[in-house]
Structure formats: structure tokens, C-alpha cells
Fold these 2 entries.
Entry 1:
Amino acid sequence: MTIAKSGVEGAKVSQVPLLDIGRGNAPLKEEFMAAFESVLDSGRFLFGPDVFQLEESCAAASQTKFGIGCASGSDALLLSMMALDIGPGDEVLVPSFTFFATASCVWRLGAKPVFVDIEPTSFNIDPARIQEQITPNTKAIIPVHLFGQCADMAAINKIAQMHNIPVIEDAAQAILSEQNGHRAGSMSLAGCISFYPTKNLGGMGDGGMLVTSDEAFAAKLKLLRGHGMEPRYYHQVVGINSRLDTLQAAALNVKMKHMAEWTEMRRQNALRYHQLFGQCGLDLVLKLPTELPGYHHVWNQYTVRVPRGGRDSLRKHLADLKVGSEIYYPVPLHKQQCFASLKEELAPLPETDKAAEEVLALPIFPELTEAEQRLVVSSIAQYYGIEANIDATPQRKSA
Ligand SMILES: *Cc1c(COP(=O)(O)O)cnc(C)c1O
């Protein structure tokens, strides 16, 4: 039996897949099986030693003191909002250009997500726009480290401290990412990590983790993830059931050992795209993603901008050539049907709207080969009728 080659939720056979999870997992199969066997033998399916080990290693990887495992990145966000006692009448500043969970955690508690525009180069929440949206009801800010590059936490924290507003990092896509040497998750009250299979540390199902250095906040999060129960069958507060399975943690512990190496491979792939796109002049046609000075990008996604309405037809051209790509995210949150009631008070979000029309994510996973990257680039060059001096045969590694 072999480990499936395809993606997460069923993928088609591609010449160059957007993501091939099997390439990372297959070489570790024996290790996974041994880890699963020891969980099976122990019978400790919840709160087994693997969970504590992962909590410790995630805390360390995030330069924080405590890790609190939970069922998903979405739950990590929800728990952080619960621990801040967010509720009706409260406003929480979030980007609109993000995955749904960044805002649903606010909405589910009866509070109002207030959408803030992004900074066009990084795709991340714009600190200048944050300032404008703060009201006496603002009770938290959730910057997202989108695609693997940190939001400008230095600027965000300055504003937040001025107004005494807690900040929670949505670090779902950004484990090991840094700004000014500070890791994602360590630059605010707490960071929320996701182990969804497409994330840089992807599990074999759902899982999530909160990281924080605030001992009291960590204790509150632990209480809330376990029904607010302490001691057993005595409920101090109403929490939820959100646990990280030991089996899941066992798989993630195996993968955690490779995170530094896999992150470096993503960074090399980003560098190579940069060189290849530059070689054929496509850097003048597309807007390539960049690593901002002082940042350490972990490239969960390599997202280019396709200007002048060409994105969807380029994507179709790539699909015809079986080159994987994806749009993160086609409909920004402020345009989602479920948030229609927020429309009246909405600030204009021109950069968010523009990004949603232009972005296209290309394959960047660690094991992507140079030949595959050349094929991606030459396929795009072909679309634009550019004579690409890039053949698809791999050459000596330039890195
Ligand atoms: C993946 C993701 C989440 C949610 O994580 P899950 O583990 O899938 O619940 C939240 N925010 C962002 C930005 C994400 O990319």
C-alpha cells in the first residue's frame, strides 16, 4: 500500500500539482506507523504524551512558553476570543482578505468583525487602516500572517498598546515565520496555529494549537478547551470540547523534526521562481510576491498578482496544461452572504477587492522539483506569448 499522492479533499491528476502531500509523507511512513502503534498500545487517545510533546515543541518553535493543543486552527481562534470574553457589543478588527475562520470566531460569540483593508505588497492588514477603525468598542485585533509572511506586528502593537487593545495573531499559515527575529505567535498575547493538511506543518486531519507566554491566559485557554471543567465534573465557566487527538499529535511530532528543512526548501523554491520569472521578463507582467526587509517568509503560498483582469483566463490555461493553481481568496469576507448585515457600516476596502481579483497561488510545496517550476513558468510565459528561454529540463541546482 502506498500513501496517496493527491491533495487534501480529492485532487485531479496534475502534471504539476499545486500541492503533493504524499511526497512529504511517504518517506516517513515507517515512522508514522511506529508512532501510531505506540499510541494504540498506550490507549491514551486523548492527552497522551505526544500531545504534551507537540505543545512544548510548538511553543518553542514560536518562541513562547506555553502551547495549548486544540481541535483546529479555527477553534484556536475561537478559544482566544472566548478567553478575552469577547461578546455582544464588542468589535474585533480583522482583515477581510483571509480565510473565513478569522472572522467567524468573532461572529460566533455575538461580536462584530470589523473589516480592515490590506497593504497591497504583503496582502496583510494595513496598520494605518487599523488606526482609523478603532472605536471605544474595539476589544481585540486579529492580524493574519497571510501566505506565510508576518503582518507588521511592530506597527500593529504600537497602535494596540496606545489604545490598550489585546492582539491575537492568526498564525495558521505562518509557523516559523518571523518579523525582526520574532517568531509568529510570540508578538502578541497569543498565536493560533493550524495543522490543516495544506499548512506548512500539516496533519492527517484537523488539529490546532494556541501559543502564548502569558501564564494566566494559557490557563484560561486550557480551561475553555475542556468544557471549563476543573476539577472533573465541576464547571467554572462554559467552555467547549476542543482537543487535539494523540494520534494526530504523534504524526505531527514526526513531521515537526523536518520543519526547518521543509521551510528552507519552500524558501529556495520561492527564490527560484523569482529567478525564473526574471529570466523571461515575466516579473514585469505579473507582480511577484516578495519577502519584505526584516521578515522571514515561510511561503505557505506563493501568490502572484495577475493584473488587468487576466487572472481567470491564465488559470484556465494552466489547468488545461495540468498545472495546479488556486485562488486564495476569491470572495473577501466582507462580500460573503453570511456577513451581509455588516455592509452598512463597512469602510471601503479597495486593496482587498483588488487582491481578490488578481491573486493566483502557484505550487510552492517543499518537494516541488526544479523541472516542475520551469514548467510552471514556461506555461505562464506561453500564455503571454513570451519567448521563454526556460526549457523544462532540470539544470544544475542554482541554490
Ligand atoms: C487554515 C486557516 C485557519 C483555520 O484553520 P483550520 O485548522 O482549518 O480550522 C484560520 N485562519 C487562516 C488564515 C487559515 O489559513
Entry 2:
Amino acid sequence: MEIPALVLIIITLSLSNVCPCFCFTAFIFGDSLVDAGNNNYLFTLSKADSPPYGIDFSPSGGQPTGRFTNGRTIADIVGEALGSTSFPPPYLAPNTSAATAFRAGINYASGASGILDQTGTLFIGRVPLTQQISNFEQTRSYMVKMVGENTTNIILKNSIFSLTIGSNDVLNYFQPSIPLFSDKVSPTLFQDFMISNFTIQLEKLYRLGARKFVVVNIGPLGCIPFIRAVSLNILGGKCSTKVNALVRGYNKKLKEELDRMNNNMGRNAIFVYANSYDIFREIILNFPKYGFVNNDGPCCGGYIPPFLCFKRTNSSASSAILCDNRSNYVFWDAYHPTEAANLIIADKLLNGDKGVCYPMNIRHLYDYII
Ligand SMILES: *[C@@H]1O[C@H](CO)[C@@H](O)[C@H](O)[C@H]1NC(C)=O
Ligand SMILES: *[C@@H]1O[C@H](CO)[C@@H](O)[C@H](O)[C@H]1NC(C)=O
Ligand SMILES: *[C@@H]1O[C@H](CO)[C@@H](O)[C@H](O)[C@H]1NC(C)=O
Ligand SMILES: *[C@@H]1O[C@H](CO)[C@@H](O)[C@H](O)[C@H]1NC(C)=O
Ligand SMILES: *[C@@H]1O[C@H](CO)[C@@H](O)[C@H](O)[C@H]1NC(C)=O
């Protein structure tokens, strides 16, 4: 009763085409912190498609990819650490094949986007979270067409769904020039809008087959160079307590909401609360311990608005735009961390204790069997 070798070979071959069991598959949603190039294909003011963005990104030879940092994003680093051999490509890139979903996954993230659809209007083009999830729905339909509903669900239940979003909603709230929310709703109501809209999207992903979630909270936005500058805290180096208070309030509600969802779902799904706020705050407070020399200014683009970080064609001016040593800076530009900071944050999210990743870290989530 031996199974003919040829049959075994055929089974193995067809499984290796679809089965993600031996590789890391990630579906990435979020804003510029994890955008891997989607905004390159939009008409938008939120772009990272010119040097020196990407200067330390070796897969592109230092050319810009649309990532809003000098090197890898946190999502890139986490994927690599878990054995991913290629980064999930941007959904909007014309040469991205939906078939990549079976192997590496897809990146739907878009700079300037938020949980709320209106967020980022000033930047014109961006893909809001709701649209990112509709785009995933398209990918899923393709998967179902290729391998059927059941196999698709098996693949999705073993994949990691990460969501890094909310910073732009908060930044917009504090921009007085946007006649949207400021002075209209209280910070508490604004937090509640964010949470209830976010919850709807998380539940939608669950209905579409997602089971392993990493939900990254909002970092200490009051400490980014942009906010320090507009709050005129440049010289004092102080963070905006008002902005950080709103972020902390939101994060607390987010954790409670995820706790509630974990309780309701039992073992059917896991929502990991990734506490980037505390990790980032620790780096800013104790920066020398992590090898940084500068914790409050951008490596690229200068300290004062409009913080343009791009290489001027005029070579005499271009030398002034970059700091001497990119590993010495926490911030790459006025909004985004350097790869050096991303490496530390990613390491804590992967391997950290319950204080930074609750109820389990990303490495455990990856091994967890739903
Ligand atoms: C798709 O195009 C981008 C930009 O030209 C390129 O960097 C990337 O390697 C291409 N990807 C594939 C899978 O061909
Ligand atoms: C899909 O799974 C369901 C429930 O487990 C089962 O009833 C059905 O026969 C499966 N369909 C296929 C095509 O395998
Ligand atoms: C989502 O946010 C909007 C504000 O953008 C708010 O009006 C709406 O009530 C929220 N939706 C839910 C279900 O809370
Ligand atoms: C290039 O930079 C130099 C020195 O900053 C300046 O004098 C010159 O006008 C610039 N040229 C152009 C074309 O911007
Ligand atoms: C940049 O800084 C890092 C960390 O402090 C250090 O290890 C490295 O040697 C520096 N590189 C240069 C070119 O000075």
C-alpha cells in the first residue's frame, strides 16, 4: 500500500505553491510608519520617493522605495526576523501580483492615512484604513478563486495581520487649519470615534478570515520634531503634554477594547496590543543607553517648518541636509523614526514581555496555533 513517489512529488509541489506553513505571511495595514511604497502610485503630498529616503535600504541599493525612513520599517524588520525572504509588496504597485499573497503577503499601508476617512485630506491622496481593508477583500477574492474558500481560510488564519494606524488622526485633530474636529468634539469623544471606527474594521477583518492580529498603539507623538517645533518647544526640547495625553487616553481605550475582543473570541482569534508608546518613550528618555546622541531633532530636513527632507540637485546645498551619522538619531525626519530606532522597537515587539506586547509577543503569536 505504498503511495507512488510521483503522487507524493505532485502533492508536495502543489502545496509549496500555496501553503504558507513554512514561510511568514503578513498582511500589513497602516500609515507612513509602515507604507512600503503605496503612496508612490497616488497623487499626494505624502511621498517618500526621492533621496535620501531609503539611503540605508540595501535591497534597493539605497534608492528610495516609498518607505518613510532611511532603511527598514518596523514591519520589515519583524518579517525578516520571522524568516520572511521577501517583503510584502505594496498593493498599489502595478507589478505586484496578487499571487504574492500566498508567499509573503501584501502591504496596504498608506502615508497620511488614518482610522477616520477624512484624516489626511490636506495631503490629497492617501488610502484610508477602510479602503485598505476593501483592497484586502480584493486580494482575498483572488485567493478564493485560486485555491477555494477553505484553503484560503487556512492560509489567512496562519498569517499575521498588523495594523499601525491612528497617528495621523491625532495630528489632524491638533491642526487648527483643518476645520474638522478641533474645537468641535472633546478629546474624549474624538478618542471614542477612533476606537469605534477601528473596532468595526477589526471585526470586518475577522469576518474575512484574519485571526492573528498585531495592533500597534500610537507612539508619543507629542515628542516628534514636528510637534515640538509647532508647539515652540524646540529649544526646551520638551514634548507636548497635551498631545501625549490625548494619545495615552486613546491607547488605554484601545487596550481595553482589545481585551474585550480577546475575551469574546476565546481561542478563535488573538489581538495583540503592541505598546510602541512605552518603548518609544523609553528610547527618548534614555537615549544614550541605546546608542543615540540626538533624541529630539530630525536627521534629515532641519528643525523648522516645512521640514523638507529631500536631496536638492544643487550639490553645495545637499550636504547640509543630512546628519553625520544616521545611527545616532532617534528621528529620521520631522515625523518618522530612523531605522536605528525601528530596530530597537521591532526587537521589543518580537521578544518583549507583557508590558510591551500583550497578551503575548509577536514571536509567540507567530508560533501560536489557532
Ligand atoms: C516592481 O517595481 C518596482 C519599482 O520599479 C521595483 O523596485 C520592484 O523590484 C518590482 N517588483 C517586482 C516583483 O518586479
Ligand atoms: C470546506 O469546509 C467545510 C466545513 O469544514 C466543509 O463542509 C466543506 O466540504 C469544505 N469544502 C471543500 C470544497 O472542501
Ligand atoms: C466614526 O467616526 C465618525 C467621525 O469621523 C463619527 O461621526 C462616527 O460616529 C464614528 N462611527 C462609529 C460607529 O462610531
Ligand atoms: C546652489 O547653491 C548655492 C550655494 O548655496 C547658491 O549660491 C546657488 O544659487 C544655488 N544654485 C541653484 C541653481 O539653486
Ligand atoms: C555611527 O554611530 C554608531 C553608533 O554610535 C557607531 O557605531 C558608528 O561607528 C558611527 N559611524 C560613523 C561612520 O561614525
